[in-house]
Design a protein that fits this description.
By secondary structure, this protein is mainly alpha-helical. It has helices spanning 2-45, 171-195, 202-219, and strands at residues 89-93, 96-101, 131-133. It folds into 2 domains: 21-148 and 158-167, no CATH class; 170-220. Strands 1-2-3 form a 3-stranded antiparallel sheet.
């Protein structure tokens, strides 16, 4: 009886941890996706020629050499928290990148209460349906820097801070933290790839899992 009860308790704890972990990853995905969306929009807006263009690659967002002075729209290529990789799905128009999305096929826990610009995310069947597209909002919106991020609800009594509406996030501080933690993760993943053989092996998967766990701890 005691063993059975303990097993049930551990299973419940494990499920609760998995749910909490996935919800945290969802918030990280919303943040990273918004950074990409803003960067792509800026790349388009700051095209030096009369004909505006979107970036041909995500790397072009790191250093834009189209003008007399290089511009930088992203600090680094963010890691997709749902897949623990930089292999983002790309939304393209005429071979140019207009948005990104996660390649994860998991179904999101968050199904509603999105900001107005992300209403299309409601009821998504997988994270691949969360598409962060630069032209999904009108230019010059007063909320351009907050789309896709948890909103400041401190002065709004109708929207308490809950798991679905978390406390406000400092986007600048998060960007610095993502950059530092991401650099550490990149080094750890490189070490795994060079030291554990085939990527599909148990040892390699364990190493990569530990690296991403450390990355998540760094972001806390």
């Amino acid at each position: 009886m005691m063993i059975a009860i303990s097993g049930i308790g551990l299973a419940a704890i494990g499920q609760a941890w998995h749910t909490a972990s996935q919800r945290e990853k969802e918030q990280e995905l919303l943040f990273a996706g918004e950074q990409f969306r803003q960067a792509i929009a800026r790349y388009h807006q700051e095209t030096p020629s009369p004909i505006k263009e979107y970036p041909p690659t995500l790397a072009a967002l790191l250093t834009d050499k189209r003008g007399p002075k290089p511009a930088h729209y992203l600090r680094r290529i963010y890691i997709d928290p749902m897949t623990a990789s930089q292999d983002w799905g790309l939304v393209k128009e005429q071979e140019r990148i207009v948005g990104v999305y996660s390649r994860s096929r998991l179904k999101p826990f968050k199904q509603d209460n999105f900001s107005q610009s992300l209403e299309g995310f409601s009821g998504a069947e997988s994270y691949q349906d969360w598409r962060f597209v630069a032209n999904q909002k009108s230019e010059g919106s007063s909320q351009a820097n907050n789309r896709g991020l948890p909103q400041d609800t401190s002065n709004n009594p109708t929207m308490p801070n809950t798991a679905e509406n978390p406390p406000p996030v400092n986007a600048g501080a998060n960007a610095d933290k993502y950059a530092a933690c991401g650099a550490t993760l990149d080094a750890a993943q490189l070490s795994c790839h060079s030291g554990c053989g085939a990527l599909t092996s148990t040892a390699c998967q364990s190493c990569l899992g530990a690296a991403f766990s450390s990355y998540r701890q760094c972001l806390r």
